[in-house]
């Protein structure tokens, strides 16, 4: 059990901040006549779109809590997990003073939101096999002042590998601030989740999303699981109605369909393995990194040229050659059988034409 003084870790202006108290958050009983929120009594679409949604998302948190096996008072729900990333900076890091640690090559949003919040980023690059440089992180944690938050992505984007849970736990133990473990791709992984560590470490925040395995990127719904104290802080500083009614309804609907989602995930994993087999037959494809996610990082030599040539054929992949440790690499999302077939055909055409 690691006990951290969350209050001390918070930005001073966030300690004890009074959240906006909306009409809908003040009233929690039952009534027939609601004249407290300046809503329109007419509902033009016939779906109760005239009423504000529950700012605490109580019912949805109960359902999501069952799905993750996490108690609802440990949950924050947001407009994508990107909202949780931004809120963690705003809760814990003082602009122009505090620092965050990121572990490149990794998800670009951590740096973008650090820049937006005027938070200096300290980088500890992953090792050449993309495992965590635990000793490098330890060194930074002991040498640098004002470290408030560390983002650790597992399975990692764009490399696709999972970090070892023992390494993650070690980092949580020695890091002086919040450790946010971004598990956006955990649904595709057979490695253990950091959720199992949640009740032992108050400085751990686990990020999940409905955007990948659940197929709901359009809806914008992400989750953060943490200590109840951190969950309360995020609840207090978010936009009062950060999740729209339609988004909450779509989440209920897909959670009812969890079995189809689970078999959809198995299908993607099958297609990933099939894609690996087909990529191996393309002459200029070098290393294919092992993936616990719904994408593959592969070495192709001239990544920029491959990206541009595929684009000419209407196939869009991500060029990652400028990411540290990813020279000559592209990231390819596992698509449908049909999409993957088009990709492979286009890649073979490029080889046959001698263009790469
Ligand atoms: C896609 C992705 C997310 C998801 O972001 P949302 O805002 O929930 O759509 C989070 N983290 C990583 C590493 C991702 O690749």
Please, what is the average pLDDT?
96
The distinct bound ligands, ions and cofactors come out as:
pyridoxal-5'-phosphate
Tell me the strand percentage band.
5-15%
Largest sheet: 7 strands, mixed
Output the structural class: alpha/beta
The shape, in one word, is globular
Please outline what is shown here.
By secondary structure, the chain is an alpha/beta fold. It is built from twelve helices and ten strands. Helix 5 links the parallel strand 2 and strand 3.
Quick tags:
356 residues; alpha/beta; 3-stranded antiparallel beta sheet; 12 helices; 10 strands; 36% helix; globular; binds pyridoxal-5'-phosphate
Description:
This protein has 356 residues and is α/β, with parallel strands linked by helices. It is built from twelve helices and ten strands. A seven-stranded mixed beta sheet has the order 1-7-6-5-4-2-3, with helices on both faces. α4 crosses α5. It is globular and about 70 Å long. It starts with 5 loop residues before the first helix and ends with a helix. The site of pyridoxal-5'-phosphate (PLP) has 13 residues, from α4. Residues 80-82, 107, 153, 157, 182, 184, 209, 211-212, 217, 222 line the site of pyridoxal-5'-phosphate.
Topology diagram in text:
Blueprint: H1 6-9, H2 23-26, H3 58-68, E1 75-78, H4 81-92, E2 99-102, H5 109-116, E3 120-123, H6 134-143, E4 147-153, H7 165-174, E5 178-182, E6 204-209, E7 222-225, H8 228-237, H9 245-256, H10 258-279, E8 295-299, H11 303-312, E9 318-319, E10 329-333, H12 337-352
Parallel strand pairs: 2-3, 2-4, 4-5, 5-6
Antiparallel strand pairs: 1-7, 6-7, 8-10, 9-10
Helix pairs in contact: 3-9, 4-5, 6-7
The structure holds pyridoxal-5'-phosphate (PLP).
């Amino acid at each position: 059990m690691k006990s951290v003084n969350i209050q001390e870790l918070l930005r001073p202006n966030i300690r004890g901040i009074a959240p906006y108290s909306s009409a809908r958050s003040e009233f929690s009983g039952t009534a027939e006549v609601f004249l407290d929120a300046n809503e329109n009594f007419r509902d033009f679409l016939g779906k109760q779109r005239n009423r504000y949604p529950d700012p605490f998302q109580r019912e949805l948190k109960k359902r999501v809590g069952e799905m993750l096996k996490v108690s609802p008072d440990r949950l924050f729900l947001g407009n994508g997990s990107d909202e949780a990333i931004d809120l963690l900076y705003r809760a814990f890091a003082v602009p122009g003073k505090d620092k965050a640690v990121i572990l490149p090559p990794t998800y670009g949003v951590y740096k973008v939101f650090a820049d937006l919040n005027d938070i200096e980023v300290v980088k500890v690059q992953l090792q050449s096999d993309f495992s965590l440089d635990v000793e490098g992180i330890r060194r930074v944690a002991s040498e640098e002042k004002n470290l408030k938050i560390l983002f650790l992505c597992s399975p990692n984007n764009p490399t696709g590998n999972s970090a070892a849970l023992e390494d993650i736990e070690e980092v949580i133990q020695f890091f002086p601030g919040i450790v946010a473990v971004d598990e956006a791709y955990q649904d595709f992984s057979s490695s253990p989740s950091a959720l199992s560590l949640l009740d032992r470490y108050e400085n751990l925040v686990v990020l999940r999303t409905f955007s990948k395995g659940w197929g709901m990127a359009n809806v914008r719904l992400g989750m953060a699981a943490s200590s109840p104290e951190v969950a309360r802080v995020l609840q207090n500083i978010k936009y009062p109605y950060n999740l729209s009614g339609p988004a909450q309804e779509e989440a209920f609907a897909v959670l009812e369909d969890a079995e189809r989602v689970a078999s959809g995930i198995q299908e993607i994993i099958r297609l990933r393995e099939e894609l690996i087999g087909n990529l191996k037959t393309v002459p200029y494809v070098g290393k294919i990194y092992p993936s616990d996610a719904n994408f593959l990082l592969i070495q192709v030599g001239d990544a920029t040229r491959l990206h541009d040539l595929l684009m000419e054929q209407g196939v869009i992949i991500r060029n990652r050659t400028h990411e540290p440790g990813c020279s000559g690499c592209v990231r390819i999302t596992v698509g449908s059988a049909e999409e993957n077939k088009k990709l492979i055909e286009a890649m073979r055409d490029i080889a046959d034409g001698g263009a790469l």
